[in-house]
Specification:
877 residues; alpha+beta; twelve-stranded mixed beta sheet
Length: 877
């Protein structure tokens, strides 16, 4: 049997019919011409040629692929059956579309971010390298000097490269406004190590990556398109970064996003950074990567680097900040490590949603099969086999799943677009898109959904009960104990999964609420911040200090400004940096041990401007202006950790660069990041030199403005003041402190909100499933209920009868869900802030909500059943 004949059988049958009709007509005419009557002529023609219908049927069977023909018949039957129940079909398709859609969307994100290989050459050989700074940070950034030794002495790598985060002021030309560009500084061999070639132009060379070289830059595809209109003429042209000239030598491909997706420009690191920093052994500022030699494993490479680091550490035993070991991870893991757990949790939540949807459909199909029991029994009695009935069950389920999968794929596409537009901060965001693998995954979900729902409902109909089904009258409860038990099990599982999702969402929401309301240790209401960076090419130290003074004088005198100040890193904006120190007059620390604290540079009036309270002492002396800094203010946690039980005022700290600083004050703790514990902190005066070097000063700062009114109204006037002082100076990150906290808690907010949506959808599905099944069963028992009422049953008894049918599986599911949640919530413990996985309030609240929703879902069909007119119900018999 050929496929060609199978698909042409209709045409062959029509041709055969026409040919046989022509032969019969000719034979009849010939018989009539011989003198036979018309009836005799027709009978003789049929005797000669045989029964045409039988001949056609024989040929049709010969041209038929039996199993494919059976599938086609089952499909037609399934379509007819679903058309008779359009409401059931529509609800089922929507439920399946929801379950498949959210799963396909989350799978797209998880696969693109966590599973898809990096778009570099042989990405499995790319690794991120860390220093193991003993007693401090086991996964620390690299110091320039340590990296240089690694690069020189290691043999495990085909190449090693180094990078550092950067920001540049990109000057405007031809009417363009200046802007702050997020960038990265690369060693010249970074792109060859990654295995990347520029889309246009050339890569950096060793000659470009020297302090004496002319400035060169490579642009991202996005910046090239947005800022320069995609004009190739920008190559070999000069742009101004921090008021210094740079020649554009290349454009990277549109997909390139390293070290972050926000980087828009790259410059050579050895050309940019001072030689002292690139040779330092204890200043950990850089990200190092390596490409493993073929056949070399990561543990072997890390062991070699650790030996090199230990040798350097042993030669500088008096410096505890020189690392004594190394660590490493795959480059992919270093990029996506922080988001792996939340994405896996959300993917698990979507799997629960899909399972709940499948249970819902299976339950509705089982309930629907009760009404079709007599129909199925008659078909069995007429010769329908168990396999044929099972196949037809599966076909109906498959049709629902295919339709739901189609709509689910559209929903997944919309959800992916929404996610990409909302979460540009997610690593590898540019790699997220629906592809052939996602389509195959969706097709697999369609098949699994169809099999699960179809098999459950099919095996609920026992083919050996044909006689009992035919003998059943409508007065009997046609559900059967086995089906009732199955429906209760399905409902219990559905409710249990819903409880797990509700408790997970409740815990994350409570955690987010506590995180959002946590105090930074300063005033956050009506406080505006904006960042700027003075380019060293145009501002020496005295010019920078005069700019600060002029800016603060103008801003503080502007109407509506209550206070203003400058600080290099505002509370909640990040780690910022740290510094090692010793306390003068104390015995030396044991070898290999050291003390560190975060450091901040601050305008003296910023303490009051941002509301950081003084615990003791005073602010900086005015003599600190325009000279080397000699004073420091410490935080309360610094005092508790290093001066417990003694007065720190007047004591001297010796910082890592051997500079003495006298402690003049103690201020309250502030958080460097929302949700983190306060760390010891040192504050230095912003308008002083860090050391005695003429160019060693802080040029980047955040302006803090506080007002008693809506502070956002001051954003534009303050920017105009900055533009009046320097028209080429761009301002970035214009945020209120509340908005800054919002950006810091975005992950927690997003995860909690998304999981809550999944939980509410699951609750809705459970409620709809409970309502649908109880309504269907109540309708099946209409005559029975009528008889009960006619025989004297109270309507309240009927109400409680139906309510018990629905609430019993709901309560069993509630208990199962609470027990499962007690074990599973520990998986999200790392995502919780000041919230215990076994939070009694959340568990109790979810139990109450679930019970109320289940009662409401059962109450409507129970109330309708209790209001039945017994006479009308009995007439339905």
């Amino acid at each position: 049997m050929s496929w060609r004949r199978f698909f042409r059988r209709t045409r062959v049958d029509a041709d055969l019919k026409e040919e046989m009709s022509a032969h019969l007509a000719a034979q009849i005419e010939e018989n009539v011409a011989r003198g036979q009557s018309v009836e005799e002529a027709r009978r003789a023609a049929f005797l000669k040629f045989g029964n045409p219908q039988q001949v056609r049927e024989t040929l049709w069977r010969q041209n038929t692929i039996s199993w494919l023909d059976s599938i086609a018949r089952d499909c037609k039957h399934g379509v007819r059956a679903l058309r008779r129940s359009p409401g059931f079909a529509l609800v089922s398709i929507l439920v399946i579309a929801l379950g498949i859609g959210v799963n396909a969307a989350l799978f797209t994100v998880v696969r693109s971010v966590l599973l898809k290989p990096l778009p570099f050459r042989d990405p499995q050989r790319l690794v991120r390298l860390y220093e193991n700074t003993l007693n401090f940070f086991p996964y620390n950034s690299s110091a320039g000097g340590i990296f240089a030794e690694w690069q020189k002495d290691s043999h495990s790598f085909a190449g090693m490269a180094i990078s550092r985060y950067a920001e540049y002021n990109l000057s405007g030309t031809q009417g363009q406004l200046p802007e702050v560009i997020e960038a990265a500084k690369f060693s010249w061999n970074m792109l060859p190590v990654l295995g990347v070639e520029p889309a246009l132009g050339r890569n950096f060379t060793a000659a470009d990556d020297r302090p004496s070289a002319n400035g060169t830059a490579i642009l991202s595809w996005g910046l090239w398109k947005r800022r320069y209109g995609g004009n190739p003429a920008i190559l070999n042209q000069t742009i101004l970064l921090d008021a210094r000239p740079y020649t554009v030598i290349g454009i990277l491909p549109a997909w390139f996003a390293y070290p972050t997706s926000q980087a828009q420009l790259w410059t050579p690191v050895y050309h940019e950074e001072p030689p002292a920093l690139m040779q330092a052994l204890d200043d950990h500022e850089f990200h190092a990567i390596g490409r493993l030699q073929p056949g070399v494993s990561l543990p072997e490479a890390v062991a070699e680097l650790s030996l090199i680091a230990k040798r350097i550490h042993d030669g500088h035993g008096d410096n505890p900040f020189v690392s004594g070991g190394a660590n490493g991870s795959s480059l992919l893991e270093s990029i996506v490590g922080d988001i792996r757990t939340p994405l896996n949790i959300l993917l698990g939540a979507t799997a629960c949603v899909l399972l709940i949807a499948c249970l819902n459909i299976a339950n509705l199909l089982v309930a629907r099969s009760v009404g079709r029991r007599r129909e199925l029994a008659i078909r069995t009695a007429l010769g329908g086999s168990r396999a044929e009935l099972l196949r037809q069950h599966l076909m109906e389920s498959l049709l629902l799943s295919v339709a739901g999968g189609g709509f689910g794929l559209l929903l997944a596409w919309a959800l992916v677009q929404w996610f990409v537009s909302l979460r540009q901060d997610v690593p590898r965001i540019d790699a997220i898109h629906i592809d052939g693998t996602v389509l195959a995954f969706t097709a697999g979900l369609v098949v699994l959904t169809a099999l699960f729902a179809g098999l459950v409902s099919a095996f609920s109909s026992r083919g050996d009960q044909v006689l009992s089904a035919l003998q059943e009258s409508s007065r009997s409860y046609s559900g059967g104990h086995a089906r009732t038990r199955l429906r209760r099990v399905l409902l219990s599982l559905e409710v249990g999964l819903t409880v797990v999702l509700l408790i997970g969402a409740g815990l994350l929401l409570k955690s987010y609420a506590r995180l959002r309301s946590s105090s930074l240790g300063c005033i956050t209401n009506n406080v505006l911040t904006m960042d700027f960076s003075l380019p060293a090419a145009r501002y020496d130290f005295p010019a920078a200090v005069h700019f600060y003074q002029d800016l603060l004088t103008r801003v503080r005198s502007y109407p509506g400004v209550q206070a203003a100040g400058l600080i290099d890193t505002v509370p909640g904006a990040g780690y910022g940096g740290d510094n090692g120190f010793t306390i003068q007059g104390r015995p030396p620390l044991p070898q290999g041990r050291g003390q560190i604290a975060l450091h901040r540079w601050i305008d003296p009036q910023s303490f009051s401007a941002i509301g950081i309270p003084f615990e003791s002492g005073s602010t900086f002396d005015d003599s600190q202006h325009l000279g080397p800094a000699t004073e420091v203010i410490i935080s309360e946690s610094f005092r508790r950790q290093y001066f417990s039980g003694e007065n720190p005022i007047g004591q001297t700290l010796i910082t890592q660069n051997d500079r003495p600083f006298r402690i003049v004050g103690v201020v309250g703790d502030t958080l460097f990041e929302v949700g983190e514990r306060p760390l010891p902190m040192m504050y230095f005066p912003l308008d002083t030199l860090i050391s005695s070097g003429p160019k060693d000063f802080i040029g980047s700062a955040s302006l803090v403005v506080r007002s008693q009114q809506d502070v956002t109204r001051l954003a534009l006037p303050v920017q105009k003041i900055i533009q009046q002082l320097d028209p080429d100076l761009p301002v970035s990150d214009i945020l209120t402190m509340d908005q800054l906290i919002g950006t810091q808690t975005l992950d927690a907010s997003f995860n909690a909100t998304l999981l809550l949506i999944f939980a509410l959808v699951s609750l809705l599905l459970a409620a709809v499933g409970l309502f649908g099944v109880i309504s269907y069963l109540a309708a099946q028992r209409t005559t029975e209920i009528g008889v009960r009422i006619a025989l004297g049953a109270q309507r309240s008894q009927v109400l409680m009868l139906i309510l018990r049918d629905g609430l019993r599986p709901a309560l069993i599911g509630l208990v199962l869900g609470l027990a499962s949640s007690a074990a599973l919530t520990r998986l999200i413990q790392s995502m919780l802030y000041e919230t215990q996985p076994l939070d009694v309030e959340i568990f109790g609240l979810v139990a109450v909500i679930l019970f109320l929703v289940a009662a409401a879902a059962c109450m409507i069909p129970a109330w309708r059943a209790s209001r039945l007119n017994p006479v009308a119900a009995l007439r339905m018999e």
